[in-house]
């Protein structure tokens, strides 16, 4: 068991730590926006397309209930965080939205592939692909709706700015046109049609797709390096929601929905993944920079070394 935990966590912590070190030693030297573009628009979509296209139709059917589990795992903490931020900590709606998405959306894209592969093997690739796609489709609109609403309600908004009300519809449409969403959907269609990817195409896509895990973890470290750290009640509450409550929600849902054991374990481990940086990135174009969300991101990532270890041990006894 110790060997399994070490093989699952040490490589991902090392890669993330390397990115953090690079971001601290030479601040600004690493073009984070370019790295994220490479990851989100190319490497990850290529990997997700190949993984899903190779799956058998029977495997896809078995994973259908996983979507319901993942939606619950993300939306329950999202709404709890939103309500607490607004009515307990008295945050404005835009800041509350950034914080809620940061907490509710685990770092599936960066941590999911290397972690689940180490614990469950290559057969878990489809689970991660479904998780990334579900997160993009559900949580992107959840952030954009509130951020756009907050911007439209600003008193200083000019009449010219009000003409951009259609931006929300455009943003939501663009969510479903992103490569990271289209790629796994395309792969699923290939699998459902019973087609087989030509070896040359599969190998070509895999050259870049295989860089996903390392690139994603390294970029996460870079993001962590620039986040402020001021631990307070808000950050502590967010860490508890992300690292403790989310896996417990997954455990309750897989039991309630009678999810097959193999998929149930993968769903719980996905829910135990620390929160990601997408909420923070969503807020930047809207001028929202929340120190509490940044602190939650850093603290959740650090604490995940413990919470993921405990989750892996407990899953071994289920």
Verbal overview:
It is found in: Cell membrane. InterPro entries: Mem_transp_PIN-like, Na+/solute_symporter_sf. This is AEC family transporter. Keywords: Cell membrane, Membrane, Transmembrane, Transmembrane helix, Transport. One of its GO terms (cellular component) is plasma membrane. By secondary structure, this protein is mainly alpha-helical. It has a single domain, classed as Na+/H+ antiporter like fold (Up-down Bundle), CATH 1.20.1530.20. Helix content is 78%, strand content 0%. The protein is built from 16 helices and no strands. Helix 2 (32-53) runs antiparallel to helix 11 (199-209) and helix 4 runs parallel beside helix 7. The protein is globular and about 55 Å long. Mean pLDDT is 84; it is low at 157-164.
Task: Name its key features.
mainly alpha; 318 residues; single chain; Na+/H+ antiporter like fold; 78% helix
The proportion of residues in beta strands is: under 5%
Radius of gyration: 19 Å
Largest sheet: none
Task: Enumerate how many helices there are, as a single number.
Answer: 16
Sketch the topology as an H/E string, one letter per element: HHHHHHHHHHHHHHHH
Q: How many beta strands in the DSSP annotation?
A: 0
Overall, the morphology is globular
Question: Percent of residues in helical segments?
Answer: over 70%
Structural class of the helix and strand makeup?
mainly alpha
| N-to-C span | 14 Å
Question: Stretches where pLDDT falls below 50 for ≥5 residues?
Answer: 157-164
Instruction: Please indicate the count of domains.
Output: 1
CATH topology: Na+/H+ antiporter like fold
Would you identify the CATH architecture? Answer: Up-down Bundle
């Amino acid at each position: 068991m110790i060997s399994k935990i070490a093989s699952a966590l040490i490589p991902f912590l090392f890669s993330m730590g390397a990115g953090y070190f690079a971001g601290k030693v030479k601040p600004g030297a690493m073009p984070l926006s370019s790295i994220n573009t490479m990851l989100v628009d190319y490497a990850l979509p290529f990997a997700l397309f190949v993984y899903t296209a190779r799956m058998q139709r029977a495997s896809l059917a078995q994973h259908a209930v996983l979507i319901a589990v993942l939606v619950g795992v993300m939306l329950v903490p999202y709404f709890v965080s939103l309500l607490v931020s607004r009515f307990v900590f008295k945050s404005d709606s835009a800041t509350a939205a950034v914080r809620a998405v940061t907490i509710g959306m685990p770092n599936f894209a960066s941590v999911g592939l290397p972690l689940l592969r180490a614990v469950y093997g290559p057969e878990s690739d489809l689970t991660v692909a479904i998780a990334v796609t579900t997160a993009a489709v559900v949580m992107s609109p959840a952030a954009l709706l509130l951020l756009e609403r907050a911007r439209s309600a600003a008193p200083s908004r000019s009449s010219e700015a009000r003409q951009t009300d259609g931006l929300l519809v455009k943003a939501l449409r663009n969510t479903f046109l992103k490569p990271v969403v289209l790629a796994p959907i395309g792969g699923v269609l290939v699998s459902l049609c019973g087609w087989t990817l030509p070896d040359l195409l599969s190998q070509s896509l895999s050259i870049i797709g295989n860089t996903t895990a390392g690139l994603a973890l390294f970029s996460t470290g870079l993001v962590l390096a620039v986040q402020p750290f001021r631990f307070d009640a808000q950050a502590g509450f967010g860490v508890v929601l992300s690292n403790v409550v989310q896996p417990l929600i997954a455990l309750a849902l897989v039991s309630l929905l009678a999810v097959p054991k193999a998929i149930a374990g993968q769903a719980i481990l996905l829910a135990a993944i620390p929160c990601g940086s997408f909420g923070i990135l969503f807020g930047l174009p809207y001028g929202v920079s929340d120190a509490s969300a940044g602190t939650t991101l850093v603290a959740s990532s650090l604490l995940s070394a413990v919470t993921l270890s405990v989750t892996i041990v407990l899953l071994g006894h289920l």
